[in-house]
Specification:
With 67 residues, the protein is mainly α. It has one domain. The protein is 97% helix and 0% strand. The radius of gyration is 29 Å and the shape is rod-shaped.
Length: 67
Amino acid sequence: MPDDLSALESRVDELIDRCEALARENRILRENNRSWTVERAGLVERNEAAKSKVEAMIERLKSLDGE
C-alpha cells in the first residue's frame, strides 16, 4: 500500500510538472500569436498603401497617355 501511494504521489507530481510546462508553453505561444497578429496588421496596412500608390500611378499614366 505505501508503494502504491508513493507511486501515485510521483505520478501526480509528474502531471503537475507537465501541466506547468504546458501552461508556460501556452503563454509563449499566445504572446507569439499577438506579435504575429500585430506584424500582419502592419504588413496589410503597408500593402494597402502601396496598392493605392500603384493605382494612382496607373491613373496618372493613363491620363498622360490620353493627352
